[in-house]
Amino acid sequence: MTKQKTVGLLIETSNAYARGLLSGIASYIHEHDLWSIYLIEQERGAAPPSWLKDWDGDGLIARIENDAIANVIKQLKMPIVDVSAARKMPKVPWVETNDTAIAQLAFEHFRERGFEHFAYCGESDFQWSMQRQLAFEQLVTEAGFTCSLFTANTRPTRMLSLKRERLRMAKWLLSLPRPTGILACYDIKAQQVLDVCREYEIKVPMEIALLGVDNDELLCDLCTPPLSSVAPAAHQTGREAAAMLDVLMKGGVVKPLSKLLEPLGVVTRQSTDVLAIEDPEIASAVRYIRDHCCEGINVNDVLKTIPLSRRVFENRFLAIVGRTPHQEIIRRRIERVRRLLVETNLPLSQIADRCGFMNHEYMSVAFRRAMDIPPATYRRNIRKHYTNSPSAESP
Prior knowledge:
Layout: E1 6-10, H1 16-31, E2 36-39, E3 59-62, H2 67-73, E4 80-82, E5 94-97, H3 99-112, E6 118-123, H4 127-142, E7 147-152, H5 159-175, E8 180-184, H6 187-199, E9 208-213, H7 217-222, E10 228-231, H8 234-249, E11 253-254, E12 258-261, E13 265-267, H9 280-292, H10 299-303, H11 310-321, H12 325-343, H13 348-354, H14 360-371, H15 375-387, E14 392-393
Parallel strand pairs: 1-2, 1-3, 3-4, 5-12, 6-7, 6-8, 8-9, 9-10
Antiparallel strand pairs: 10-13, 11-14
Keywords: DNA-binding, Transcription, Transcription regulation
Domain HTH araC/xylS-type: 283-381
Protein name: Xylose operon regulatory protein
């Protein structure tokens, strides 16, 4: 009989992203060889645990977030897969969420709602936070806007320090123009921002719209108002990491050595459910398109809801939104198609019907024009990528 592999998991359980990683690892294990798992609670960014130095298992999946942990892991003689953005061990196989893509989704989410003022609230101790900040700031700047930045003190230790940090955040929030769309580096930081907004009577989402990252459903629903959040592919990342480690423990080679997985999308809740468009007719049109885009509407249907001629409407819409009304209708339909391809097993004909297309042939043409790939191929590639782990190659 083959000896059961013993695998260590140096992954905290205190946040939604890490729990998603663990869920994906568990999913892979249940579908393949069962491993004996060693998991001890670890604080994010903490010093290396005492057990790690003498760990003699068959493999390790770790969030290598600081030099201290990296220095200990370098002494281990076993296959290792890194699931941290810090990249402290470049020669170790690595899989993580694409932070640039997270920033892109966040920026598009705010722009769809008409925002022209942007801000980012992050933590300098974590590389993933800084990567999201840099990408978000670049996108805002390239679009001709400015981005206000707030870097939180991640380790206040005394009550006085906590009060001072809260006051510093409050001064920053009060200084922002209205309305501003804020991307917080993750949901816990967004919750802290919401608490300060409530204390200082800053209206969310009317004055400040707030978007988190991780889609911690319990935390997001407990927030007041409920928090919108970017959903990363944490489960899929965990599966990919487990697949990589499995190949390594069997003597195989992982190609490529590193991989970034795309986030799943933005889950919209009340904290960003607002339109920051001063033009009332265009705001009304955008809201109508958002609510009815999958009902087979066209530009004439939108015109029936506002007191503008077609030429005036289209010129003002293009100037404010950056797309024509027809382009906005198609864009929102395509986004709905994409989500149904990923989240359901519906045939293309039913997806076309649900998304307001005359037939699936027309939908396929529109989808390919927007995504550079046919819908059936898009669905197949997504599922192959997240299920079969093509980056892990056996010897």
